[in-house]
Amino acid sequence: MSATAPLAIETHALRRVYRAKPNDVVALDGIDLEVAPGEFFGLLGPNGAGKTTLIKILTTLLLPTTGEARIFGFDVVHQTKQIRRIMNMVAGGEQSGYGILEVREQLWMFSQFYGLGSRDGWRRVDELIDAVGLDEQRRQKVSTLSTGQRQKMNFARGLLNDPWIFFLDEPTLGLDVSAARAVRELILSWKAAVPGRTVLLTSHYMAEVDELCERIAIVDHGRVLAIGSPAELKHRVQRESIFRLELDRLDGGTASLARLPGVVAASAAASDEGNGQGDRQSVSVNLVLEDDAALGGVVGALGGLGAQILALRKSEPTLEDVFVELVGRGFDDAPDASRDETPPQGRAANPQPRREDEPAEEELV
Amino acid sequence: MTADAPVAPTAPPALGSPEWGGFDPARTRGRGLRDLRRSFMTAARLGWQTEANWTDPILFFIYSVAKPLSTTLIFVVMIEVIGGASTREFRGFVVVGTALWAFVIAGIAGLAWAVLDDRERYRMLKYVVVSPSDFLTVLLGRGVARIAVGGMGAAITLSVGVLALGVPLDAGRIDWPLLLPVMLGGLVTIVAVGILLAAVCIQTRQESWSYPEAAAGALFLVTGAVFPLSVLPAPVQVVGWLTPLTWWIEGVRLAVFPAGPSGIGGTGSAFAAFTGRVRPEPHEIVVALLGTGVLVTLAAIVGFRVSLHRAKDRGLLDQTTGS
Amino acid sequence: MSGNPYVHRPTASPQAAAEWTQRQILMTNLRTVAGRAYPRVRGLAREKSWLFFEILLPFLTTSAFVFVYRALQAPPEYVGFVVLGGAMTAFWLNVIWMMASQLWWEKSQGNLELYFAAPMDIVAVLLGMAVGGMVMSSSRAAVVLVVATVVYGVTFAVDQWLLLLAVFFLTLTALYGLGMVLASLFLMWGREAYHLTQFLQEPVYFVSGLNFPVGRLGMLGALAIALLPLAVGLDAMRQLAFADAAYPVGTPPPEVEALILVVMTVVFLSLARWMLRTLERLARREGRLTIRWQ
Ligand SMILES: Nc1ncnc2c1ncn2[C@@H]1O[C@H](COP(=O)(O)OP(=O)(O)O)[C@@H](O)[C@H]1O
Ligand SMILES: [Mg+2]
């Protein structure tokens, strides 16, 4: 990188150990990151990966044990004032402020901390309240806000000082689908307004990171396991092409497909549409090919078998697949996750069921 | 789980069953005395652990030594500063009054703070309220733990009074048959006043920490704790008669120093003008304490219920209200 | 509102935005004082139970002390001493309840982290709390002073008005300076600090001579005068406000006590500044700027 324009975030061998009983906790174990000004950067990792710890160090709230970190060239240990003037942060589930205040009063108080003039502060607060969509709650007591409204207010607070870098620690935690979408749109429009604005977002929602971030670092146990754009990361695990076929019938079963050239595996899958009771019987097949080019041969052969293709979709790998590949375990069954879920099965032979809000599959037909 | 589902006799309890902490329909039925007692004991233990732990020397020092003793010393020095003939007798008067005040502060503040603590500090008030234990019982338990601390403070203050300040206490002349019922009535009354303050604090802001002590301080004026009511204007003396704490203090004083000065009576007092006697008789004290105490207790229960209802109605239980 | 809500005060670059002028720094800190005082003032306006509990009841408590002296047939200036003590208690209570324990509260409410992440000085936040709290304590002090003076017939005899005023304001600066020191101590000690607030009530009232001339306490009184702004300030104000009273000797003249207050102010304020910096460093090192109850 050029010496004249410092990076938005630069960390070198960043390590953070918490003194704790019975054993010290190594929350960050040598993090090297470079985030350019204007980038939307994501940190993806399970609970306890060290995401919050990293954000706290970068926002000058926590000292690194060893290593270095700079924000726009300012050292997080010594140049805290400079950093605090140009950054802001919002965390999911944040419960800051004073319950007796109204939304705009609370925001005005924070505006004063950033040196906005008294009247300028009120004007700015009203403007941001409109921007985050809280106009109806403007005069409502902070203690009576819903989770989603509260998070919108936190965002308004975070934007009061026109930060150059915005740290978001799981900002959609606990929000419903539409509130989370509103928050994501808000972040994107804010960022687009001025070139050079930088966002560091942590999340354990893969879809969110996938949708928002230009580049991602996957972290676990305080280490960066991989860095790249979502596409690059996914490409890394995509050695084969996976398709999902919907057929009206398949004489000879999936075995007849598996014998075709270029087919790695073919397996029956639960049907999407026909659930056995409808007029239309259909057969669903998961097909793993060596590459996309092998698809032509399969389509031709199916015609020969007298099967008609009702639907054909390509399955893209998700960031979850990337994580599984990197860590050797699923995202949600991280050792310290309390949920009890079935272990992930073989990825290629039986792709993971997707969550509804994850746009994992791309319609081809 | 339905109640009549056939279950093999050897089958382990299902996850949702009461044995595993699951739902037990029996719990929805009315609470028996046993449940009340259990919540009370748990709360008392909790109060003990959080606020009154005597094994913690610092807490013991603050609540049972420094605070009550300082209160007493403030008055002792006030008397000392003036000097004069009557001050010797007055010293005993003030030491007993302020020693008993240790109960008042501890009891009133303990109950009211339990509300503020749970809501603001632990953010637990809503869970306490929705738990099957009766909220009032839980509060009482915590309050009782506090009163025990107050009792320790009272004992220490009295001991210092007798040993170091020359308060003439003759253990052989203590009127136990008067002391015991009066003490019991007094403690119940303190708890009632504490509940009233708790009812107030359910409604007020986080900064109401000082309210209970302000209330206790104001009661100094009308209860004859630190000076005889006779120096007050007559209407204010009557307000004192309506306060059960006045009768409590008078009763304890009479039981401990049968010859000491009276807080209610005395020459020139409204009591003397009204009854023609210098001081109330023991049975009058007990009856008056009982009457006023019952009134205050009823008011406390009603006030608390109303306050809790209003709080639920307006969603006050789970907010933090600092500023 | 016209314009883009996402751009308010455009800056050329992060580097330019990060460098502030001295004036900018000063203004931000001043605004922070106002900003932090605001919730306090709003809170008082919104929920008025304090008028009863923080003004009427304390007035009654002070009255109780007055009647003790009446019962003892004390000389009239003693009633004045009590009234003055009752008025000044308001500020002391404000310092220990609304300042000393406040940083710790802010931490448990999740605000402290945001305060540290913002560009202003934390001292400005503490000052803001003090100013906001003073609305209440001043009303309380004024009501106790005026009403009690009228009701109980206190007569003041002031020769040196200017010195009296100066001592009053110095007492406040020293008190709130001590409040800042306590705030950082409390933050460090966490939950135990709350018990310390309790310790700072009756015992401090006693050694500060809230209801009697502190000189009567001998060595203990001298110690209080050397350490507690409440004790020195009160003693000096009593000497100045009741100049004609046969005031018991044993304490320094008011001019000397004013000097003690100046020293206390300087010491407490610099100590507070140093402690807050140290505390921030410690907290950052140990990861203790937040606790979460959820
Ligand atoms: N203040 C602390 N003291 C001790 N351990 C901590 C502290 N904060 C975080 N940790 C530990 O450090 C690890 C990383 O935590 P965190 O950064 O919060 O992870 P994430 O935000 O990715 O979920 C966890 O094991 C956590 O328990
Ligand atoms: Mg986290």
Number of strands of chain C: 0
The ordered H/E elements of chain B are HHHHHHHHHHH
Number of helices of chain B: 11
| Ligands bound, unique | adenosine-5'-diphosphate, magnesium ion
Low-confidence segments of chain C = none
- Beta-strand segment tally of chain B: 0
Order of helices and strands of chain C: HHHHHHHHHHHHH
Content-based structural category of chain B = mainly alpha
The proportion of residues forming helix of chain B, as a percent range, comes to 55-70%
Explain this structure:
The complex is a heterotrimer of chains A (365), B (323) and C (294). Chain A has 365 residues and is of the alpha/beta class. Chain A is 30% helix and 25% strand. Chain A has a six-stranded mixed sheet with strand order 6-7-8-3-9-10, sandwiched between helices. In chain A, helix 3 (103-113) packs across helix 4 (118-132), helix 4 packs across helix 5 (147-159) and helix 8 (230-237) packs across helix 11 (319-327). Chain B is an all-alpha fold and 323 residues long. In chain B, 67% of the residues lie in helices and 0% in strands. Chain B has eleven helices and no strands. Chain C has 294 residues and is mostly helical. Chain C has one domain (36-286). Chain C contains 13 helices and no strands. Chain C has helices at 14-18, 22-46, 49-71, 77-100, 102-109, 112-117, 122-151, 161-189, 191-199, 202-208, 219-227, 229-241, 254-286. Classes of the chains: A alpha/beta (365), B mainly alpha (323), C mainly alpha (294). Chains in contact: A-B, A-C, B-C. The A-B interface holds A 98-101, 143-144 and B 205, 315, 319-323. Adenosine-5'-diphosphate binds next to strand 2 and helix 1 of chain A.
Brief descriptors of the model:
heterotrimer, A: 365 residues, alpha/beta, Rossmann fold, Alpha-Beta Plaits, 2 domains, six-stranded mixed beta sheet, five-stranded antiparallel beta sheet, 11 helices, 25% strand, elongated, disordered C terminus, C: 294 residues, mainly alpha, 75% helix, binds adenosine-5'-diphosphate, binds magnesium ion
